[in-house]
Write a structure and sequence with these properties.
There is one protein chain. This protein starts with a helix and ends with a strand. The protein is elongated and about 55 Å long. 10% of the residues are buried. An 8-stranded antiparallel β-barrel has the order 1-2-3-4-5-6-7-8. It folds into 2 domains: 30 residues; 123 residues, SO1590-like (AOC barrel-like), CATH 2.40.350. The protein is of the alpha+beta class and 175 residues long. It is built from 1 helix and 8 strands, in the order H-E-E-E-E-E-E-E-E. The longest helix is centred in the first third of the chain and has 29 residues.
Amino acid sequence: MTTRFWTASFRVATICLLSLVCSVAAQDSSKTPMPNNKDVLMTGHAIGTFDVKVVPQAADDQSKPAAIARMSIDKQFHGGLEGTSRVEMLTANTDVKGSAVYVAIEQFTGTLAGRKGTFLLHHTGIMTRGAPQLTVSVVPDSGTGQFVGLTGEMNITIADGKHSYDFAYTLPKTH
């Protein structure tokens, strides 16, 4: 077969694939309301504190030492965010002192900037020999009620046993 044939075939396949991708994207976007260029976005910072109640969960295999631990956490938010959240967390320590990891999914229910609804947060925390790195992000398209279209990042600070947050967010103004 000639190079010209393969080049033409590749072009046709690429066009078909792009058409399929665009078609699927158009169908998916019609299911979830997304802010468009006409929507004006509102950005802000919500700061405050939260109370934490941690409930350790049983290990899956009681006969082995727990390399991975599970916890359920209930939070009560005060300040810019008013409401409650439920967190499911997995943690693990290593043999090196000060090195560990956690991942969590959190569902917040309450108010922000005068709006009501729910949204999900995804946590990833890594500690490398005592140096912490934490990312807490709004799960894309997880906002319900008046939080549809919410995006954001949360910083968490723990000082003297007290928890505080700084939540940088963006919301569509018209909802």
